[in-house]
């Protein structure tokens, strides 16, 4: 192909391309205002569809479900922690009561010996000062036990109750009623609401 023919062919192709481009621009420029408005409305409709009420409601529902789930988990965790705290406090109180009860049981024989010593102590003379000291120590020990919740069981003159009394002797006494505690042989004690040691008693009639 000669150089002149090649150049002419390139010029013809260029004219065709420029004609197509010009035709496209002319077509877009020839749109009426109604067509342009319709095109814009269609684009707006597509945008709205992307954020439709259904999508928003679906997202809102998912968010509410997530919040409700987290709230439920938080409430369960708080309830579990509260139960754990109460259970721990109860266990601590139980352990304290067991320890206090065990110590009180070991101290009771000491209290018994103090009471026997007070009965045998002289009321007058040189030994009175010593007896007064024993009494003061006994009262201090008894006050300490009372502060811990240890109190003696009142039994003399009361109806016999096997829940609190341990009958070891029986006596006939017309001045007393039936099954009445006539004498206390060994003092019994309560620790709070439970029996620490039963009263050893003599029951009449």
Brief digest:
The chain is of the alpha+beta class.
Report on the architecture of this protein:
With 205 residues, the chain is an alpha+beta fold. Residues 21-29 have low confidence and may be disordered. 65% of the residues lie in helices and 15% in strands. Strands 1-4-5 form a three-stranded antiparallel β-sheet. A three-stranded mixed β-sheet has the order 2-6-3, with no helix packed on it. The protein has helices spanning 3-29, 33-50, 53-120, 128-148; strands spanning 150-152, 165-171, 180-186, 189-191, 194-197, 199-204. The longest helix has 68 residues, at 53-120. Helix 3 runs antiparallel to helix 4. The protein is built from four helices and six strands; from the N terminus they run H-H-H-H-E-E-E-E-E-E.
Walk me through the topology.
Elements: H1 3-29, H2 33-50, H3 53-120, H4 128-148, E1 150-152, E2 165-171, E3 180-186, E4 189-191, E5 194-197, E6 199-204
Parallel strand pairs: 2-6
Antiparallel strand pairs: 1-4, 3-6, 4-5
Helix pairs in contact: 3-4
Question: Structural class of the helices, strands and pairings?
Answer: alpha+beta
Unreliable stretches, pLDDT < 50, 5 or more residues?
A: 21-29
Main sheet, how many strands, which sense, barrel?
Answer: 3 strands, antiparallel
Distance between the termini: 151 Å
Averaging pLDDT over every residue, what do you get?
81
- SSE order: HHHHEEEEEE
Helix tally?
A: 4
Percent helix:
55-70%
Rg computed from alpha carbons, rounded to a whole number of angstroms = 52 Å
Output the strand order for the largest sheet: 1-4-5
Strand content: 5-15%
Total strands: the figure is: 6
Shape descriptor: rod-shaped
């Amino acid at each position: 192909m000669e150089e002149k023919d090649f150049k002419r062919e390139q010029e013809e192709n260029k004219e065709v391309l420029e004609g197509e481009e010009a035709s496209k621009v002319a077509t877009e420029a020839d749109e009426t205002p109604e067509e342009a408005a319709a095109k814009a409305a269609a684009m707006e409709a597509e945008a709205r569809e992307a954020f439709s009420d259904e999508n928003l409601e679906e997202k809102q529902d998912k968010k509410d479900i997530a919040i409700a789930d987290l709230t439920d988990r938080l409430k369960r965790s708080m309830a579990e922690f509260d139960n754990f705290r109460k259970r721990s406090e109860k266990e601590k109180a139980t352990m304290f009561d067991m320890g206090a009860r065990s110590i009180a049981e070991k101290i009771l024989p000491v209290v018994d010996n103090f009471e026997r010593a007070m009965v045998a102590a002289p009321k007058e003379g040189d030994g009175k000062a010593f007896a007064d000291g024993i009494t003061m120590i006994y009262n201090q020990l008894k006050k300490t036990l009372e502060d811990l919740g240890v109190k003696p069981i009142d039994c003399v003159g009361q109806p016999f109750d096997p829940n609190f009394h341990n009958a070891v002797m029986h006596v006939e006494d017309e001045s007393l009623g039936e099954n009445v505690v006539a004498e206390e042989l060994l003092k019994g004690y309560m620790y709070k609401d439970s029996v620490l040691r039963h009263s050893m008693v003599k029951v009449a009639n």
